[in-house]
Structures are given as C-alpha cells and as structure tokens.
Amino acid sequence: MAATHRAPTVMERSLVSLVLVVGTLAGVLAFAQTPAAAPKSTAAKSKSATKAAPSLRTPWGDPNLQGTWFVMYDVPLERSAANAGKEFLTDEEVAAADKKKGLDPGRNARSSGAQDVSGAYNAVFNSILKTGKRTSMVIDPPDGKIPPLVAGAQGAGRGGRGGAPAGAGGRGPGGPNDNPEFIAQSPRCLGVPMPFLPLNTAFAQGTVMQIVQSPKSMGIYMEDDHAGGGNRTIFMDGRPHAPSNLKFYLGDSRGHWEGDTLVIETTNFSQGFRGSNIDTYKMTERIRRVDANNLRREITFEDPKTWTRPWTVLIEMGKADDHRHMIFDSACHEGNYGMTGILAGARAEEKAAKK
Fold this sequence. Notes:
The protein has a domain at 67-72 and 139-322 and 337-348: Calycin beta-barrel core domain (Lipocalin). The chain has 4 helices and 12 strands, in the order H-H-E-E-H-E-E-E-E-E-E-E-E-E-E-H. It has helices spanning 10-33, 40-50, 91-103, 337-354; strands at residues 67-71, 73-74, 130-131, 138-140, 208-213, 217-223, 230-235, 252-258, 261-267, 282-291, 294-302, 311-319. It has a 9-stranded mixed beta barrel. The chain has a two-stranded parallel ribbon with strand order 2-3. The longest helix has 24 residues, at 10-33. The chain starts with 9 loop residues before the first helix and ends with a helix.
C-alpha cells in the first residue's frame, strides 16, 4: 500500500527553523571563541602590512618624490687641505667637530671692544646641523675641489653664492656691488638664487625644499631664511626650453625620468653661479628617492667658458613628517641694512681707488 504523505504542520516547521538557528548561532560563537590559526604566510603578510612604508609611487606610476625634504648634515662645499685625499671623516673626527660646535658660545657674550656687527648674532644661529661624514659636497672631480677656471674666465670668490643679472660673470661695470641692479638677488630680497646649495647652514640657507608632483609638471618650493623663498616649475611634458634671449632668476627647467631618477636640465639663467657665463651655463640635477625617508640630489655644473670641466655636488636630504609641513615664511624686506652697507662699501672703495 502506498505511503501517505502530508504537509508538515506550522508547529513542526517552527521547530525545524529553531534547531537551524540554534545550530548556526552555536557555530558562530564557537568560531569567535576559538579562532582557527592563520597560515604562516598569511600571518606574515598581515604583520608586514601594519608596518608598510608609504607608497613610493604616484597614482599615475611615477616615482613619488613629494614631501618636505631637509639637509641633515653640515658638509663643506669643497674639501679642505687638511682632508686632502680623504672622502669621509672618521666617527671620532665627527664627534670632535660636533663637540667644538657645542663649545662655541656664538656671540652671546659681547665684548666691550666689539666693532661693526661683531656680537650681532646669538648662538642660536650657529651649529644648527650635525657634522656630516663627507669631507665635501663636491664628489666629482674626486679631489673634492671645483675645477680650475679656463683662461680669461672671471670666476667668483670661493665663498660666492651667485652673481648679478648682468654680464658674463653677472657683474656690473664697476664690480658686483656697483649699484642695486648688479647686486645678487639674495640681499635684494628677490628670493633664493639657484642652484640653492646649503652653503651656510648656520642660517638655514639652502637646507629645506618641498616637492609637489603632477603628471606633466613639478613644483619645487625652496626656503632660504631671510633671503626670501622661491618657486620652481619643472615641465615634464617634453616641451623645448624657452628661447635663449629669455632669462629667468631660477632658470628654465625641463625634466624627464631615467628609471627612478628625475633628471632636470636648467638653462636660461639671468645670473651666473660662481662667475659662470649666463649664455653657456647649464645645470643638470639628478634626484632619486633612496627609500621612504631619504633623498639623493646630485647637481652637475657645466660651462665651457668658465670651468675646465663639469663638476658635480651631492646633497643628501631627509624627509619631514607629512602631517607637519614645517616650512616657515621668509622674513626678508627690501628696507634692510645689508643693501645700505653693500652700497656704502662700494662707494668707500671708489674713494680709496682715487687717492
């Protein structure tokens, strides 16, 4: 006899549903109280993800150089005679140099016989950076020295930070301090001069810059203590340089990538560097992010009318916290005492030359 089938009652359907719910809840509670051990590879990935460095690539795929970068160590431009043939200082020599800086009181205690501006600067302006191990920023030539001048080149004093807008060496008819138009832009509060080297770290000159990127251009803001800041624009879209008759305070920059290295070629300067000829002077930078917190900036200077060969400096920089953006405004103004003193000195030299 065939079996008789009937539909389950409402009570029976409710009991089945209750059993399923209780069983599911028990499974969830058991899983929460006793989690399964993750495979070693998964655990390792999870641990490394929590310590992952920020992305070193932009959203469009270029190496990411963005951020605020600062010079970490005090390194002289050229190698001294005392360090001839020596590329790096020893740890003991670095410690001794830093100790000497710490003992230097600056000019906090002004002597009664001080003349002119002696004693004008407190110790806060000294020993800002720790001594670097490199004996010179110049890495090529290997002797750490700027190459000799070619015959007939004017050149500039070894401590020069730039030239004025006129002439083969950026000098006016009566010398570099003849009148305000021939004085370098820094004392005139016209912003930072290129190449923006940390030549005087006691005054934070050339020690900090901020980079912002886009696919077709790049902005580099440079801060230089009292001289006034500067904003460079580097075009990355393959456009040619401006016509040679157009000159710019910060030059005319064009950039491209060579692997992970940004290469910037800058020409069309309105002023020379260390006496260079503005019509033949070229500056080539190679900027590479070494890792999340370190940047390597190499600058090669070329001018066949000034130096017997190209020469290159190395500037190593560290990264500031992205959340701080600690770059303070320059406090430069055109009514400064420096301009008056420079022009007064030039007039005194003229009088002395006539006697």
